[in-house]
Every structure is written in structure tokens, then in C-alpha cells.
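Question (not urgent): is this output format expected?
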Amino acid sequence: MRITNSTILRNYDRNLKRISTQKYASENRITSGRQYTRASQSPLKASKALTVRKQLWHTEQYKENLDVADKFYTEAETSLLQISDSLASIRETLIYACNSTKEKATDLNILAEQIETKAKEMCSVFNTDSAERVIFGGESNDPEPFSIQYDENGHGTTVLYHGVPVNAYSDVSDFPYSKDVFIDIGIGLVINDNQEVDPQSALKISFNGTDVTGCGYEKTGEKVTSIDTLKLNQGSEDANTLRITAKGTTVTVNFTGINKDDIRTAINDAFTNAGFAANDIPKLSDKGQLTMEDGSDVYISEQASVNIDQLKDGFSYSFDIYAEGTKKTINFVAGPDTATTAANIQAKLNQEFLREKHVPQIDESGNLSIEYVDANGKTVSGSIYVAKSDSGNAPGLQNEDTYSKNYIQVTLDAAAALRRGDLEYANACIDRIVTSSENLLVEIADLGNAEEYIEFNTDRFDTRELNLKDRQKTLEATDLESEITLMKTYEAIYNACLQMSSKVVPNSIFNYIS
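Got this back:
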């Protein structure tokens, strides 16, 4: 068979181009460090490499989330350590105040100012933010979730959380913005049927401030059987109101000053007007103790109440009521007697709470209450807190006179007690501050556990990232040792092909031109 020159030239040219292309591709793999530049060059490896890249991206995101969470929890722990120091200082100041032998009138006021300042400092600490999130603001990013209301003398009276008094609700979930905020850290995020994040599948990066500081009243249920004049307005012209319960009936007693005889007269008049016989009227001893002739119970009512007996017929009034997680503003008109006024208020309560689970009730003495049957079939009393409304004139309001569960509020209450010289109340606040300090240590320990969990997951993702990058290198990166050897082989073959050209390519006329 005859092989023509054109066939030889064509084969030579094709092979030279092929080895040149392979040599160039090998050089490109060495300089770029990549096995291929297009998925079509290695479809199977490219598919696996894309999966690894996706996993690497998720790993980087999870590590960033963990870094944010770590800063968040570190700031939270630092804040609570500051609060712990503040509570210790408050405790020491209260102990000193309750046991000091110095001039009380001046000294106690100074100590009260120191304690109130600590309450303000604690509010500032709880308004701290981290990574542009307010740590103790729940799901809200309000820069100041905690605030303090002041009286006309500039003294702090009430701690507010997102504008709601911390004593208003006993359940933290009733406060505004009480839902948790979560961050995905790669442990399998799960959304339940209610379209909410399963707490076990993510990391929480928010704290409900009232869950940390406490909320509501203690509600000890203890009946007050004596009148502590230190808790009353001291001036001879200052008005005081007591609600005394005897024979199952609560009677409102109004008087001025703290003179025992004036108080006895007011009690006699109030119970006589309420239809009590002389021998059924409570007796007040010189020590302020209340007793009944027949030995039956008598005590000062601590229910939330409205002083309806002091309202003017035909005048409009307004107040806010926080009842079992619901806030409503009650606007009503006073009637000619307490029964009519109570009926007017009840009508408004029924109207405002029509679509709520429980409706507050008010009796003719102005006492407010909620009772309902719980899941165990037991009748329980709900929480009620009353406050002045922004709209209209406010009637006289009274809340339960027990201790707050919120230690910032307890601090303010202790300061107020020192100002009025009520060392018994201030001394009781010491025990509550101590208990709060102990509970705070548990909170700090929980934060420490969370930080360890974050560190564990960070280490886990560091290891995972190393493994994925090693896998990525296998799928995408060039094996330089093997590739350099291959490139040298292609280069040698290419040079050999060029040397053979003189044997294959025929001489042209130009070779003979001298």
C-alpha cells in the first residue's frame, strides 16, 4: 500500500497539535492549581466538588453564627456578673441601714439614694446590646427595654419592661416581645406545625428581661392583721385608705394622719355605714393590731382595687388594668353610690375582656379579682395589676402590698421603705436580694454551659472544615508532583516531534535558496 506525503504530513500535524494541547493543558493545571476549569472536563468530580463547596459555605455560615452567639453570651455573662456585684452592694447597704445607730432621718435618705442609684445602674446594664442586638430585650431590638417611672419628687417608683410594669404579670410570656430569637448553628433546624423554631434544633440568642430579673408579686397569701403606721402617709392632713375585711365583707376606711383615735373613729364610721352591728366592728389596739370580739378573722385586704367610694357622681374616670397577660384601658362614669359605680366598671370590664379567656370582677368595695378553673380542675386566682391611664382622670388605685419578684423593683421598694423609715420592710428586702443573688449565680452558670456548648460546636465545625477542604483538594486541586512529571513527559515528546520534522516535512524550494 502506498502512503503519500500528504498523509504523513497530516498525521504528523495532528499528533503535534495533540501533544501541544496536552502540554499546554498540563502547564495550565500547574499554574492554576486546578484539575479542570470546566465541569464538562470531569462531570463526576465536578458534581462532587459542587456538593463539597456547598457544605463548606454552610460550615462557614455556621461558624459565623457561632461567633456572633459567642460574643452575645459573653456579653450576657459579663452583664450578669456586674448585676451580681450590684446586688451584693445593695445587700450590704441595706444591712448597714437597718442596723445603723446614726441619725436616721438624714442617714436613711442618703442610703436610699445610693440604693436607688444601683437600681438605675442595673437597668442600664440590662439595656446592653451585643452584635447590634439588645441582649435582654426578648425579640425586640428596642435600645431601652428597661426603664423607671418617677414620682413628683423625682424618686424611682416602678420598673417597666417594654413599657409594662414588671409587677403587672406573673408569667414572663405575657410581656411584650417575649418570644425567643434563634440562630441556626447546623444541628438540624426544625420548624414545627405552628411555624415556630424547635428550641432543641437551634441556639437562642435572646433573653426575656423579666425572665432574668423576675416579675409579678410573691403572693404569699398571708393576711395582714395589724396596721403599720410607718407605711401610712404621715402628715396630719395626708389622706390614707385601708381596706379591712371582716365577716367576709371588705370595707373601705378613709382617714387622715396616723393618730390611732382618728383611725378607730374612721373604722367605726365605715363599718357602721356598711351595716355592721357594734359588736361586729373590728377593734384597733394601741399597737395597731386588729381583732374581733368573737375571735373571727379580720385583716387588711391586699387585693388590687379601685377607690370607688371617693369618686364623684357623673364624672368620667379611666385606668389601665393588666389581667392574666392582657392590658385594657377601662373608661367609666361614676354613679351616685358604690354599687352603681362598680356596676359601671364591671360593664366596661365585660366589654373589654369579651374575647379574652378570663374577665376580671369588681365588687361593691372596689376589689378586683380573677378566678378560673385550671387544667387540673382547681379554682385559682389570676394576677391583676392596676395603673393610671394616659387618658382621662384616674381614680385612686391600689395593688397588692406584697413583695415584688423582680429584684430591680425590690431595690426601688427598699429605697422607698428607707425614706419613710420602714426598717421592717427594708429588712425583709435583704432576704429577697440574697435569694435573687443565689438565683443569679444559677443564671451565670447556665450561660457558662451555653458558652461551652458554643465552643464544642465551633471545634466541631473547625474539624469539619478541614476535612471538607481536604476532600475539595482531592476533587479539584492539581497533584503537582504527578502533574509536573506528566508535563515534562509532554514537553519531551513535543521537542522530539519538532526534531523529527526534518525527516517528515519535505524540503521546499526555500531550502535551496542561498
